Amino acid sequence: MSVDISQNAAGVLTLSLQRPDKKNALSLAMYRQLTTALQQAERDPAIKVVVLQGSASCFSSGNDLQDFLSAGPLDANHPTVAFLYQLNAFSKPIVAAVAGLAIGIGTTALLHCDLVYAAPGCRFQMPFSQLGLCPEAASSLLLPQLVGYQRAAQYLLLGDAFDTDKAEAMGLVNQQVASDALLAFAADKALQLAKLPAEAVQQSKALMRGKIKRKAEKTIATELEIFSELLQADACQQQLHSFFAKK
């Protein structure tokens, strides 16, 4: 289904996006896999940390739009929606390893991760307005809080792309790591977390993210309502038609 799932003896669960022919664009099946894996990890005391990664050359080009649009209304039954809520609610630490493209959900998902490491020269972008849409994954709340309103407006209103240097400077990325060492580096950081007392780590995360997590859940719901409306509007339909025509 294009997500490789593995667990080591130390309690690190690794979720690897493996759809290279589509630049790791997330399909509905992949969203289902990711959501199920996070739900199981939440319940399993043996799992201490989750690593979310693509390959050493590509993280994710975002939604597989054709697949996304085939799933019907953006309600709780939509695989993308279920993933967004589960990602926001997840109580254990998530370490992300990012290389190459991080487009749309490939960037906004990082706002819910606890440690983010990226290779030099990544392309981060949230081109929602360019498609006639609005932000998702609570990015309209989380990004301004992280980087300030004006900078968030540059990336969410204009949809400007930015590189790893800027992502690190604004705090979206913890550290740059050479491409050939990235996945191993993230795995090592996850192992460091897994060796710490799990209750202390999870309670610390809860103290830092608890209030914003509740606000984010409400923001996701509001964003989805507006996203659904915009999706049916002529402006968005024209942009989507142009997008598919180019492909």
Automatic annotation (TrEMBL):
Keywords assigned by UniProt, alphabetized: Isomerase, Lyase, Peroxisome
Q: Does the keyword NAD apply?
A: no
A GO molecular function held by the record: delta(3)-delta(2)-enoyl-CoA isomerase activity
Q: Can you name this protein? A: Enoyl-CoA hydratase
User: Pfam families this protein is in?
Assistant: ECH_1
- Give the domain of life: Bacteria
Return the EC number.
4.2.1.17
Q: Which PANTHER family match?
A: ENOYL-COA DELTA ISOMERASE 2, PTHR43684
Localization terms from the record: Peroxisome
Q: Which CDD domains match?
A: crotonase-like
